[in-house]
Amino acid sequence: MSSSQAVTPKLTKVDKAAILLLSLGETDAAQVLRHMGPKEVQRVGVAMAQMRNVHREQVEQVMSEFVTVVGDQTGLGVGSDNYIRKMLTSALGEDKANGLIDRILLGGNTSGLDSLKWMEPRAVADVIRYEHPQIQSIVVAYLDPDQAGEVLAHFEHKARLDIILRVSSLNTVQPAALKELNTILEKQFSGNSNATRTTLGGVKRAADIMNFLDSSSEGQLMDSIREVDEELSGQIEDLMFVFNNLKDVDDRGIQALLREVSSDVLVVALKGADEGVREKIFKNMSKRAAELLRDDLEAKGPVRVSDVESAQKEVLTIARRMAEAGEIVLGGKGGEEMI
């Protein structure tokens, strides 16, 4: 590795976005952020908060790539959805963040249900804690699966089971009922009524939410679902994507995923993986990189199960994010591999 490479390490896409926003200044950055959803704002915000000693070469590289990309497109579009308040408060401090948060949120077209997507999971749980379980299930089904999983973590097991079972059987919600729920929530959060989304829930949604529960809660919940409805538990398990399912992802998808996962996280995650997943990872790396990874695994020594599970969850979170963005296909459905 040359000295210049050591000074300017390879930037991830999120790093590049963070550098670009930091370069724009607060006012212009706020205008960009208001068109992004909570998940994207959180990821970029965390990267912004962690930025230290950004080199001139890195800024020039990001700006150059940005100009090239924009020049090839007719417009800019960013996906949507989770946590702006936490990100901006962490990055700017509470006082500075409040004004920026107001400008971003007030500029959005947010319904009562959408307002919940911008809240901390514990706060969402508190909002719906004493509502009827069917209302709780509608809210949980409406949230993105990762946020929904965190919200459920703040409920007792019995309530968590009831909500997941209801989400599994939920298919559509009458527009009038959704509008009424929006109106109730808007009295607390303000916003604009927009009750166009009526298809919610289902077994796949329940499986997606289960993916984001911690391993102990997930196992306990699955056992309880199996006791209530064995067929349903089997359907949910079939639709859940766990770490060992990575061996079914096509080679191109694995290569794309490896570019986004840090080596430290990967080493810990693979400590608890089966041989099939390890070999899948090794074969999609250069020979030298695979040898280094094998050496790191051998040198790592014993690792706590909780650390392995945490690392695997981090890899899966990245994989699901990339799948949502259409960058990879999970479950081995990416087409035939070329030999």
From TrEMBL:
The keyword Zinc does not apply. InterPro entries: Flg_Motor_Flig, Flg_Motor_Flig_C, FliG_a-hlx, FliG_M, FliG_N. Residues 121-194 form the Flagellar motor switch protein FliG middle domain. It is a peripheral membrane protein. GO terms for biological process: bacterial-type flagellum-dependent cell motility; chemotaxis. Its main location: other. One of its GO terms (molecular function) is cytoskeletal motor activity. It is found in: Bacterial flagellum basal body; Cell inner membrane. Residues 224-330 form the Flagellar motor switch protein FliG C-terminal domain. One of its GO terms (cellular component) is plasma membrane. Keywords: Bacterial flagellum, Cell inner membrane, Cell membrane, Cell projection, Chemotaxis, Cilium, Flagellar rotation, Flagellum, Membrane. SUPFAM superfamilies: FliG. Residues 10-111 form the Flagellar motor switch protein FliG N-terminal domain. Belongs to the FliG family. NCBIfam families: fliG (TIGR00207). FliG is one of three proteins (FliG, FliN, FliM) that forms the rotor-mounted switch complex (C ring), located at the base of the basal body. This complex interacts with the CheY and CheZ chemotaxis proteins, in addition to contacting components of the motor that determine the direction of flagellar rotation. This is Flagellar motor switch protein FliG.
